[in-house]
Specification:
7 helices, mainly alpha, 5 strands, 183 residues, two-stranded antiparallel sheet, single chain
Length: 183
């Protein structure tokens, strides 16, 4: 919700892609699954095969530091059972990857508990995009950096809904422009 990153990219995020000093996350891979029953999980490139660096808000970095601390504790508790071969940020108590279905199941419980059972995980990406555009982020940055879309036009077509706030802000800017012209 606060980065615009896809679920598979979240599940495939490795610690080597998190730079606490610079405050960036490098989105270069995703956790994917072979098709068919019993398909194995594997690390793949991003949806468009491009790497992108995002700079999430400080509170996201703080949350990641807490995840790192908890993971270090889990690693000590798990001992020889620890299996985080892909160095994933989001792993279970013994270091195994978290499959999208598990994340989705927990997400659905949360949204149901707040009275929004129809909410999809992908809606968080939508919320991020609309909020970023509404708050004045330029579409090219939102498109290339956070969302990873191939074109800005796709980002605008899918996520560029005009909100009431955007309409009011536009009217206020036009009013200020006209007042400046009048002198």
């Amino acid at each position: 919700m606060f980065t615009g990153v896809r679920l598979r990219e979240i599940c495939g995020l490795s610690w080597s892609a998190v730079d606490f000093k610079r405050g960036t996350k490098c989105i270069r891979q995703q956790l994917s699954k072979e098709r068919g029953k019993g398909g194995k999980y594997y690390i793949a490139t991003t949806k468009n095969n491009k790497t992108r660096a995002i700079s999430p808000a400080p509170f996201v970095r703080t949350a990641l530091k807490e995840v790192k601390r908890e993971q270090a504790e889990n690693k000590i508790r798990a001992g020889k059972a620890w299996e985080n071969d892909w160095d994933l940020v989001f792993a279970n108590e013994i270091g195994n990857y978290m499959v999208q279905q598990t994340v989705w199941t927990h997400f659905k419980k949360i949204v149901k508990s707040i009275g929004k059972p129809e909410t999809r995980f992908h809606d968080l990406r939508h919320t991020y995009a609309v909020a970023a555009l509404q708050e004045g982020d330029d579409v090219k940055t939102v498109q290339t950096t956070n969302l990873g879309h191939a074109t800005a036009s796709f980002t605008l077509d899918v996520y560029g809904h005009v909100s009431e706030k955007m309409k009011k802000d536009l009217a206020a800017r036009m009013e200020a422009f006209m007042q400046n012209i009048k002198g």
